[in-house]
Write a structure and sequence with these properties.
The chain is mainly α. The protein has seven helices and no strands. Pfam families: LemA (PF04011).
Length: about 190
């Protein structure tokens, strides 16, 4: 029959094993979440790149009609895509710039019936709609992953490990200010 000291050592050993298992499990969970966030951020980068490429192609298709639209032209040419590891705020600003560029080009397309009737421009506009939908889906996945991660960072007891290992909350990808406003219909 084991003595009281042996029983105490077994209990301490079991508790220590439980704590170490929980610690490793929680750290691995944080690391898996960070990988999911990075994957979803990469999806946003891919969608932004495709969107920018489409904007460039739309610009080329409408270039002849845009000679007097020099401000729009200069803004489109000046856009530079942020690097893959750039902060989310920088990617958000790029997304907003591309949105404004697409809106400006669409206004030009609407002003010129010949251009609007062009099958190339129509195909590009359809492709733009598809890219926008993919970008929105990528943003939703990213924000969902960030939400789950941020919750784990702040909720006890996982917040203890988050603080020890310096896991910090991540930024959400937010809608641009113009898209948050109420839509006005003028008839």
């Amino acid at each position: 029959m084991p003595g009281p000291l042996t029983i105490i050592l077994i209990i301490v050993g079991v508790l220590l094993l439980i704590f170490v298992s929980w610690y490793i499990s929680t750290v691995n969970s944080f690391n898996r979440m960070l990988i999911k966030i990075d994957e979803s951020e990469s999806s946003i980068d891919i969608a932004l790149t495709k969107r920018f490429d489409l904007l460039s192609k739309m610009f080329q298709a409408t270039k002849g009609y845009m000679k007097h639209e020099s401000e729009t032209l200069q803004k489109v040419i000046a856009m530079r895509q942020p690097a893959h590891g750039a902060p989310m705020e920088q990617k958000q600003e790029f997304a907003d710039q591309v949105s404004r560029g697409l809106q400006a080009i669409n206004v030009v397309v609407e002003q010129y019936p010949d251009l609007k009737a062009s099958t190339n421009v129509a195909k590009l506009q359809d492709a733009t709609v598809e890219v926008e939908e993919n970008l929105q889906a990528s943003r939703r996945v990213y924000n969902s992953n960030v939400s789950i991660y941020n919750q784990k960072v702040v909720v006890f007891p996982s917040s203890i490990i988050a603080n020890m290992k310096h896991f910090e909350k991540r930024s959400f990808f937010e809608a641009e200010a113009a898209k948050r406003e109420d839509v006005k219909f003028d008839f």
